[in-house]
Amino acid sequence: MRILILLLIIYSTTLVFGQPGVATIIDVKGEKYYQHIIEAGNTLWGLQQMYGVPAEQILKDNPLSADGLKEGQIILIVAIVDIN
User: Fold this and answer.
1) Is the terminal CB of the chain with fewer CB neighbours within 10 Å at N or C?
2) Sequence-separated (6 or more) residues with CB below 8 Å from residue 26
3) Residues in a beta bridge with 78
């Protein structure tokens, strides 16, 4: 039982650390974008949750193939800057 609990803890922490910490921000024609490299398990839904950007905007900014997201593919996600 202890081994099962230990494996569960290790697995759950790898999920947390598997997400990108800080994505590179680049400038494209005066607009700021996050440059995200697709990792195994990334989904459009997950990316919209991670970056707080609607999936429609991600699709608009990136020419995705009919096969969807591919591991290693670089996509741009508009950087919504909160100005206070």
Assistant:
1) C
2) 32, 33, 35, 76
3) 33
